Amino acid sequence: xxxxxxxxxxxxxxKRGRSFFSRLTTLNLWTPMLKDCxxxxxxxxxxxxxxxxxxLASEHSRQLNELSCxxxxxxxxxxxxxxxxxxxxxxxxLCPGRGDLDTTRIDKxxxxxxxxxxxxxxxxxxGMLFHWEEELTRWRLLDEEESEIRQVMQAVGFDxxxxxxxxxxxACKRRLALSERVEQxxxxxxxxxxxxxxxxxxxxxxxxxxxxxxxxxxxxxxxSDQG
Length: 227
Hints:
mainly alpha
């Protein structure tokens, strides 16, 4: 009889615990802090810059990691950030082995993988994912520019000064955070890779040891020329 009473008490305690956890989770999901109620889902400049600098300092800078959400102030604790990261892995949005970010996996079931994260923070996480996708696209374009310059430098047979400047400009652009890029929009930019390639080709032609004209004509000056 004593065991039966004890089992009943233990069952009621577990039930109360589940009920309390359920209420706590509901409050966590549906009652955002007032200061965040009117925030846009897009990252602010400060959030975007913090995320960018954190990623640059990380070992795999192009892959979002378990503290990315915390470092850009989307969640309030490292624990929540790790939970969000696990959810993104489960949803298939992040594939760290390949360094991929697949925003097409954000569907109607996406929020189930972030059940412990408040809804308004879930929306912020989605904004972060699309923002980082744009950053990855920008980096890939810079990679292509760098590859073109290096191909031209290899074709002409020496390190042209303008091509070197072009490579330095690309390296600088890679490390510019969002606010820094916006700030520089009204300023003159360093020579781009196309200008560097054209000036380098003209200098090669003007030198006494310049290669034949057909060699220069074979050097790609744009992505379309490379086939």
